[in-house]
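Minutes, structural biology subgroup

Action item carried over from last meeting: produce the structure token record for tRNA(Ile)-lysidine synthase (Paractinoplanes brasiliensis). EB confirmed the sequence was re-checked against the source entry. Recorded below for completeness.
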Amino acid sequence: MARIPPAVAAVRLAVRRTLPADGLVLVACSGGADSLALAAAARFVGRSVGLVTVDHGLQEGSAGRAAEVAAWATSAGFDPVTVETVSVAGLPGGPEAAARTARYAALADFATRVGAVAVLLGHTRDDQAETVLLALARGAGPRGLSGMPARKGIFLRPLLDVARADTRKACAALGLTPWEDPHNSDPAFARSRVRGMALPALVEALGPAVVANLARSASMIAADNEALDAQAAAALWTTGGGPDAQAGELWTTGPDQLDSGVGSAPMSQGGWGRRRLLRTPDCLKLDISGLSVMSAAVRRRVLHMWARELGAPGSALSHRHIEALDALVTQWRGQGAVHLPGGIQVVRDQGALVRVP
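Output recorded by EB:
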């Protein structure tokens, strides 16, 4: 029996670990080395695998390349196979952001139409390292530094622990010829500059392990974020305190710990009294006394979640908005309203953060 090339084995193992046990799985494939290697591995490992290629219409010949990818997929036994043509006109952000928005919408829509249980994306360890560097450059907090999630809704990224070099080697070993997207080397794009200059400079200065270490750091930060977000969600949504539960009130049991027990009795431990945190039935108020005893990491997440619940769009909600809300709690000097995206105003009034009607 012929020995499987190590790069092919690495990609297949990563996909095998990720694939759902049952149901139709789609591969998002541009024809580049990463998504092509992913598609080949998914077809080898999976039982029911389809393929989607998206034509953004942003490059000359894009329709023909999409048709070539679809033809290859059909000949390789993928079912269903589709070319989804999208328009980026009128979408927010630059060309990259607009294309990404249109692409994900098309992938999710097709997955719904055919009843797919997952859509596989071909982002690699190198992509994750680039994402972390870009987040550092723009001063992103833990959310940005956690990189791309391995799983978000219907989208799965099996190759986040696989090197980009291995996807190229896998394609070569399987006789697949990937398409080289010229945007990936265009210095007009920040990610291309990171890929072509910044990350290679770091590798030269610090050694090749820097790529894996950046990706590993993202994974560890993501785990910390998940734990802190769970605490914040409990603070924002869990009801407790017996009769007060009908009023939608939440409670803390100390500076950093949350009592999530529904219907539990008031308690005191080590001098920590049980304190009302929030909220009125319409979720328009946050009680200052509860927020003020929380750790900054949890409190700011609560404020972020609350701002989203008030209607502030997440894409426009920045750390400056959350810092301004936090200052109403921890640095109160009689300042005026905090203006959030979406035309929302929040003031401090009678011991609570209150949305201005």
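Discussion: Confidence is low (pLDDT under 50) at residues 238-282.
Next step: EB to file the record with the rest of the batch.
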